[in-house]
Amino acid sequence: MKPFIFILSIHMTLVAQLDMIGGYRPRIITRGKMWSAFRNNGLDGGGDRNNSSSHSQESLSYPGNIARSFTDFVEYFADVEAYLNGDPHIIDPPRVTISQNSKGQGIWVLAINQDLDTLVSCSGPRGLSYDIESETYDIYNALESTLGDSSWPNSQRSNYSPDHQSIIGNEPIEIHNYRYHDYIINDEYPEEIIISQWTTKTGIQGTRKAYAWSYPDYDDFILQEIIFENKGNDVLDPVYFAFKTGLNVNSAAHGWADGYQMGWSDWRINRKQTQDDVFFYTQSDTFNPDLPEYKSDYQNHIMAYQRDGDWLGTNWDDTAQPYKLEVANAHENEFQGQVENQLLAYQYIGLGIIDYLPEGDFVHPESVDQPIITKWWQSGNIDELDYKDPNPLQHNDREMFEAMINQDESDITHTPIVDDLGEHALVFGPYHLEPGQKAKIVIAFVGGSGADWLNEDEITWSLTSDAISEHTLGERSLFRNFERAKFAYENSFDIPDAPPDVDIWFGNSRLGEVVVNWKDDAEDALDPDYEGDEAKDVRGYRIYKSWPPSHFWHNGPWEFIVDIPVGDSTFYDTSKGIYSFTDTTSFSGYNYYYSVHTYDSGHEHWYDKEGNDLGPIPSLESGMSSPEQKNVIAITPFQASNSVFDQMTEPIRVVPNPYRLDFSDPLHMYPDAGDPYKLRFINLPRKCIIRVFTASGDLVLERKHLKESSAESAWRQESITFSGNVVSGIYFWMVESLADESLGQVQKGTLAIVK
């Protein structure tokens, strides 16, 4: 067994965050509610192309969701014991559970040099130009060199801190500026930072710094600071910088409706049935938001955003993608516990402009009115590779330059209204850049939802009957979140700090219940915004629980279950400095998630960077957007061992029996759509052999149970030959004891399986 574990660990190391786009290893931002992959080529998210390998990279996923075993997130859930035991929690999840809201976001540099050469360098999202070369940001001589933490798990999940470096190849630098049980290490910077850098044939070097927080009021956006420096020898005039984006709400909502010819691939490769989004641009003459009463407020911002609309291919209003069982693909690898009319595409996603006239030694564009050009393009026909947008797959530099820069009236004055658009671009410039000069643009990709506006988790809210009518509240949420992104940037990243996360671990009660444990270290943490006794402000813990219909639902539904004040003797062991909570509502064999939040005292005052008193700050609570803030592998309580079971005096049982594969029948299968085949042998001795035979006597299972603490073993109906799951029928089981108290004793029974 040990050699296998060794090989497995090597494999996991090699494939963690694999290169999926043209030779550029990604790093994935996961600290906030919005997740995305970054590379040292200017591409953010996936690649908008007909290539399944690009599926596995997060692309403005909102809310983010752990997925893709052995690919993106192996460092988060590589549970070797679970793998060896056939546990399903590391099985590759279906794509329909990942709420990607973009096919990719590329940065373009368009320039004419002093020899009048037209040069275009583009990093997608539809194809990369040949000239882009990755660079590694000089972190050791940068302001960020002192940032980062190397304690567990940051040493595995980030690749840089002052105390560790594990940068591989041409991947960006990922810094985790946070740790368990303590306030943010340096609160003049965000919690997570990913820095990517690349060069282009124009001579322009791009450096992008992406920032994220997990704080509940600041976790709905990814802030990006992009610096363009002329590292070449030529004067470039004009120079334009374009943000070309393939927003599309969303992948998870377009992979279930096979009944009206829709599927994941259609979302990925731009077939028209998934191109039903409604587009908005705040600076257009005809801007008409979903909530017109807030139009003037929205127009104070530069924002291009969109939401899911009504596709004409359905005979009902499918705005926000309410789930319809009659047209759904209910295969066990696709059905994830959705219920009738549950909203699946409730997100509002936008690109907002924060700053293009920065202070300091930066060149400004010739006009203060930016972006100078806005563009939207139809998707074209994927089957004929007939794309309407400029891209290096079909066009040369001059063609791409002209297509991006030439403007007509419709580009800048009208909100696009057709329903099969796939790409848009916001273009900044023109700039005059001499060798050594720099320009900077600050943007934010932002998410919003009715759930966020109402302060509910997305899954809980999406299941309510009011969700459809509350859907447009997502627009208010979007702009509120963008205003918070602007505040964070304008206040030099100093925002009111949420109290620290705690590292939780689990036990199992003798009654087969989950026990949640954590240390008291957070109570000594000092809020960096205050001094003295006021800085020591942690006052208690709140526990949230999720018992979802599928272990792929990492983001809810969440239920608040208990508030534990600091030092509460019911839960706190003073001699060990450990809190323990036993969830008496948990049951053996079922899958659960937990998140333990700290909360603070609140404060009468909070001061911004200029020393202005912004008034009282209410009690703040840590978040649950990050994988570090909950268990990403479901915890499953088990029946504890007992001397009675070792003696084989209690009847051994198989549950459920009969088993019936029917997601609407929770009495005859465990109601986890991600783990539909689970059966449990219970009342087992600590040591035994389990065998299962067909009615004709063929052996389909032979397994040793050798767990000192557990009186049960799970079987997911895989055959002994691993050729697939067993079929419907009557089966005979036999358990032979290997325990000293009952060595050689046997119990037998029958099992009915119906599929």
SSE layout and pairings?
Layout: H1 2-15, E1 27-29, E2 36-38, H2 74-77, H3 80-84, E3 102-112, E4 118-122, E5 133-135, H4 154-157, E6 160-161, E7 164-165, E8 173-176, E9 192-199, E10 204-212, E11 221-230, E12 236-247, H5 264-268, E13 278-281, H6 295-298, E14 302-307, E15 348-355, E16 373-378, H7 397-405, H8 409-413, E17 421-433, E18 438-448, H9 450-453, H10 458-462, H11 467-470, H12 473-490, E19 505-508, E20 514-519, E21 538-546, E22 558-565, E23 572-573, E24 578-583, E25 593-600, H13 643-646, E26 653-655, E27 659-660, E28 679-682, E29 687-694, E30 699-706, E31 712-715, E32 729-737, E33 746-754
Parallel strand pairs: 27-33
Antiparallel strand pairs: 1-2, 3-4, 3-12, 5-9, 6-7, 8-9, 9-10, 10-11, 11-18, 12-17, 13-14, 14-15, 15-18, 16-17, 19-20, 20-24, 21-22, 21-25, 23-24, 26-28, 28-31, 29-30, 29-32, 32-33
Quickly describe the structure.
It is built from 13 helices and 33 strands.
Description:
This protein has 755 residues and is α+β, with helices and mostly antiparallel strands. It has four domains: 2-103 and 119-222, no CATH class; 239-490, no CATH class; 505-629, Immunoglobulin-like (Sandwich); 643-754, Sandwich (Immunoglobulin-like), CATH 2.60.40.10. The longest helix has 18 residues, at 473-490. It starts with a helix and ends with a strand. Mean pLDDT is 88; it is low at 1-20.
